[in-house]
Amino acid sequence: MTRKRDERARDRAMTGVFMAATVLTIGLLVYIVVYILQKGLHVVTPAFLLESPTEMGRAGGIYPAIIGTIAVTGLAILIAAPVGVATAVFLTEYTHESAVSRLIRFGTENLAGIPSIIFGLFGFLFFVIYLDLGWSIISGALTLAAMILPTIVRTSEEAIRAVPTAYREISYALGSTRWQTVTGAVLPSAVPGIVTGIILAVGRGIGETAAVIFTAGASLGIPASIFDPVRTLPVHFYILAREGISMENAYGTAAVLIVVILLINIGAYWAMNRFAAKSNV
Amino acid sequence: MRFKEKVIEKLLLVTALSAIGVLALIIIFIFKEGSPIMVKVGIPHFILGEKWSPSKGIFGILPMIVGSIWVTVGALVVGLPLGLGCAIFLAEMAPARAGMVLKPAVELLAGIPSVVYGFIGLVVLVPFIRNVLGGPGFSVLASAIVLGIMILPTITSISFDALKAVPKAYRDGMLALGATRWQTIRMVLLPAAKPGIVAAVILGMGRAIGETMAVIMVAGNATIIPTSILAPVRTLTSNIALEMGYAAGDHRQALFATGVILFVIIAILNLLARWVAAGRVSE
Question: In chain A, how many domains are there?
Fold first, then answer.
């Protein structure tokens, strides 16, 4: 009897411990977001978003960094999305478990495990120097594309696998070829899932620092072409904070980054839930 | 028609091989650039050398290897109990709806850029450690806490999924035997979810050891082997990022060689992860 009571007491104690861990985990993460927003949001005015920085970022706004971020991340997605979706289509629709599919999977899985600083080193050696693209939007975008490719492959593959087999069977029964089946029956139903993956990749790309600082550069000018160097928001934030140029503007930049990334990730969840709701019908 | 289909299939195959192609390029370029200096210095001297003094041509990265290990283990000490505790609570104890809302909330926070974690560490944690515990504040402890918080979403999310994947019959069986919830968790759920939890730990470790910007801002970056958790520390990743901007010649090659060592450590971790994941499938 006492043993049973001991166990009950222990059960209550452990529930308390785990609840405390949960409160602490969520509390810490929320604290970080709230802290940055509280210190930074008041800095964010239309002028802050639309003006160029002066005195290395001590005063003025973050407009060039916004343009730089959009250019690098946007171009990275334009490169990585088609490659990633094509890889997923090949893995799901064109091959069964084979030496080739294992090799492709080996590539994507290991690429996913490589730290961003290694991508930065590689991008610097290969795109900036070897291909002589210099510090530029295109060098940064290609490096970032390689980094986010595994995310897009994995989410697209899941989305395509979730398309019911019946869709394919009906398409083939109507005399479609494999490619017609992919474009006419499979991909349209997988679009929401694929889009979710792409949105998540955008979020990851926007926040990346180590991979772009050595490839896109840190220039504060407004780029005229994709061969010009730029400075992205996280790089700008890093330089402001680490070199102690302006804590005020660092908080403002961080607040912009956090708001944008949280909105993007919430958008991804929304898209995913819609996708889930739709596929239940 | 037939011909077009063939062409499309080949195009897709070639595109699908780009991931493995990029991986191969990364390995070739990093190793090609990094190995000459290792050969010149001698691999044992490079890995076990305790002095890093690029201006004098002395390249020993032992302090950075030890530093990376310290902060990664520290990150796990901070992140694992919290993240796993959170996962257990959300998966097994909290009302189902709370779990469904809070788990995505935690995952959402995985999107906070690493520089932001580092910055919070710099403005909140470093002064706190300096004032309360002494030392410069920039320390192993600060790095471990920042990285530990950074890996919380990874550990929580994957452990949660591993716990949820345990068949409901296991829980029902234990409860029918009169076991408490904690007994069920301890004796049945945790052992059953172990491969998934181990995978979460390895992924978290990979994220911690590969993290650069967050660590640079709070670690102090001294190139000496830390003797206490309050001492400053430099990791392999920060060694690269700190000096890449101005390094040339042998010095730059030595930074790429640092990348080679980091790459090898990560590859070993990935192999471990694969091995654990394979264990899960065979069970």
Answer: 2
